[in-house]
Structures are given as structure tokens and as C-alpha cells.
Amino acid sequence: MSAGFDLWTRRAVLAALGAAASAPLARAAAPSVVIIGAGVTGLAASMQLSRMGVSHTVIEASERIGGRAFTESATFGVPCDVGAHWLHNGETNPLVDFAEGAGVRVYESEDEWALFSDGAWLAGDAEEDVWDEVDAAERAIARAAERDADVSLRSVIDSDTSELARFLVGPYEHAASLGSLSTLDWDRQTEGTDMFCDGGLGALVAAWGRQVPVEFGVRADLVDWSGPGVRVGTNKGTIAADAAIVTVSTDVLARGGISFRSRLPGRTESAIRDLPLGSYNHIVMSFDGDPFELAPDTMLGYAGSGGTAGLLINAGGAGLAYFDVAGDFGAGLTAEGEAAMIEFARAALKDMLGTEGLSALTKIQAFPWEANALVGGAYTAARPGRARARQDLKQPLGDRLFFAGEATSLSKPATLDGAIAEGMRAGLAAGNEVI
Questions:
Q1: Which pTM was predicted?
Q2: Which helix (H) or strand (E) holds 345?
Q3: 339 class by beta-carbon count within 10 Å (0-12 exposed, 13-18 middle, 19+ buried)
Q4: Which residues are bridge partners to 107 per DSSP?
Q5: What share of the chain is helix, strand, coil (3-state, %, to 5)?
Q6: Omega prior to 262 cis, within 30 of 0
Q7: Would the CA dihedral through 158, 298, 377, 364 be positive or negative?
């Protein structure tokens, strides 16, 4: 690991584990609502409750806000988004308005592409063939959705579809391979304008949420909603409140990171299992010069003998290339460790640019989110046959327990825009219950 990411990961895990017994949380009065998690969903829920005048507290197991939106500059000397990097749905994303009001430049993605497959750069008919395959796959998914067929993407897409087109339709956008993606869940996701911002998206999120008071290093391990109100057990004592909003990842919930008393209803437990986090990780490269000779923010689809990947070249003009591995291949590679991730990226770089590309490489670092115990992966994709899982998870329990995050967004999962909207939705619902 790089020093920056390794230090951040170890600090977060140590904070979560709470190795030594801690004193009980001290506060003047019991809050009406406790929010578990200070990612963008938890921050948005807090902002909503503040607007309503509802007393609340936000607890966060790590030492920072933002969740998977995190920018660091130590590794490459320039801002690097080790997680979320895209401002999706620019028309509705509140981070765009915030950035513009704060004087941070935001700009639309030019949607410039290059494709490399089987040892060659694709051009002309060969390039068009891949995009034709992508279009055909998307039409097949839409037809299945029109029939209300909640099946896997793999079952409706032509079996002869190239590996590169399969990667572009599934893992590169949805962090999961075609056999793990629901046609209905895939089809109902809206697409708006994709944008970027100067200085890193994680840094923008940190500025957006800096006014939210957060108690750091507080790990929730039990939510007792068996009686009136809720009691949240943490490594620093118990918090009593009228309601709780849970914004941690479905991976944390599925592996029992938080226990619930009374037990969650069956449909809620099923929804958590049926909305697993996919795998989508950056292997970031810096170079001496511009070996790709492509415009800044060009997207590149790669398929070679070693596997598939997507690249964002010269992101923001800062000279970094985000080499992204995702889906089943990415998950397997990530499980082998950072050395294997880096080895694959170096081999692919040599495949595309030859030894000159490797000679221009000055630094390379992998950022595997599965290694972060407080997250456990990328973002959710509903399993085939379980497109209702998002709706099931967002149902309030006993008018005092609320789940929220990108996992509960029906039309904008996997986006900060969707996660923020869900935080506001849960904040409004919880606030109305306790007022």
C-alpha cells in the first residue's frame, strides 16, 4: 500500500475496533435521532434534520467524513481520488451547485473514448463493432425490462458479445459482471450529465460537509429497537434516541458489523444480502510526460490476455491515469493483493504502449476498497430476480429505524447524487416521526 492509503486504512480500522475500553459518550441531552455513518448520506440526513430543527447526533467509526469519497495528495503530489471521482447527474447533484458557489471549477465530461483489444488500438469498423455490440446489449436489456423480466444481463445478451463490450456494459459502470446484474435494476437507473471538479471529488465532499458536527472514532455495534425509541451501543457507550438512521454499507450489515435487537424483518435481511457491494478499484499511475498522447479525461476501454480494465487518462490534466478493475475479474485480482493489481496494470500498460510506456511510468499505487473494513467494496447492484430489494431496504421499521444510502436509491444508485437524496429522504422521514 502507499503510505497515505495504508495509514488512512489502518487508522480507520483501529478506530472501528476500539482496542481499549472508552468512556461513555458525553452530551448535554439525548438526541432525537442518531445517524450512524458520516458518508454523504449521513451528512445529508444531518443537514435535513438541522433544517427541521430536530436534535440529532452523527457518529462515524473512522476519523473523517465522506465515506468512499476521499481525496489524498501525499502519494502523487497532486489530488488523487482514491474512491469516487465522478460527479454524476450534474443537473440534480447538489455538489455541483455547492462547488460553483464555492468557486470550484466543475466541467462536463467530454465523453472522449479510445479502445484497445487483443493487442491493437481499435479504429474505424473495428471500433464501431464494439460500440454496436454495446448498443445491441443495451437494447436487449431494455426489451427484457419492458417484459418485466427480472433476470441477469448475461441471460439476455448475445453470447458472442466481445469481452470488451461486456466490460463496458457491466463492470465499468456497475461494479459487477453481467451474471450478477438485474435487468430491471440496470434499466431503471437514470443517466444525467457526467461532470468532474478541480481539486478532487473527495475534497469537495469534505468541504460540503465540514459544518456537520460529527463524533469520530465511534463505532456502532448494536441497534436495539425492541422497545420505545432506539438504543445504539457503541465502543464509547450507549446512545438513547427516538429514532436511528443507518447509513453504513450493505457489506458491513451483511457480515454482522451491526447487530439488531429485535431481529430485522425477513424482507430487510434479504434486501441487505441481495444488494451486495460490487468491486471497482483504482490503480493510479503517474508518468514522466504524456505517453498516451490523448486529451485529458479520455476514457479508455482495455481488453487483453490478462483481463479487462477501464482507464481515465490524464484526469483533470493533472497527469494521473486511473486504471480501474471491476466486476468478477477485478474482485479476483483485488483478492490476490495489491502486488497482483499493480503487476496486471503494468502488463497492460506495456501491452498498449510497449516498453516506452513502462519507462515513462514514475509511480503506481493500488487502492483496494475491499481491504477497508468500514466499507468493504464499491457500490451496490441488485441480484437478478431481486430488483425490489432497494425498495424493501428503504422501508422504515417501527417508525424509528431507517436505512439509507445509494443502496436504497431506485433510480440513482452507485452515485453521490442518489446517496445524498436518500439521506435527505431518511432525515425528513425520521424528523417527521420525532417532531
A1: 0.93
A2: helix 338-360
A3: exposed
A4: 196
A5: 40, 20, 40
A6: yes
A7: positive
Give me the tens of pLDDT residue by residue for the chain, a chain 435 residues long.
344 444 334 344 333 333 333 444 556 578 999 999 999 999 999 999 999 999 999 999 999 999 999 999 999 999 999 999 999 999 999 999 999 999 999 999 999 999 999 999 999 999 999 999 999 999 999 999 999 999 999 999 999 999 999 999 999 999 999 999 999 999 999 989 999 999 999 999 999 999 999 999 999 999 999 999 999 999 999 999 999 999 999 999 999 999 999 999 999 999 999 999 999 999 999 999 999 999 999 999 999 999 999 999 999 999 999 999 999 999 999 999 999 999 999 999 999 999 999 999 999 999 999 999 999 999 999 999 999 999 999 999 999 999 999 999 999 999 999 999 999 999 999 999 999
Which uninterrupted H or E stretch holds 223? strand 220-224
Q: Extract the C-alpha cell encoding 315.
A: 484526469
d(CA 45, CA 421): 9
Integer Cα distance of 120 and 115 in angstroms: 9
Residue 35 contacts residue 6 (beta carbons within 8 Å): no
CA distance 345 to 421: 35
Q: Three cell numbers at 169?
A: 456494459
E strand or H helix that includes residue 421? helix 416-434
The phi and psi torsions of 228 (rounded to 5 degrees) equal -60, 135
| Grid coordinates given for 374 | 468500514
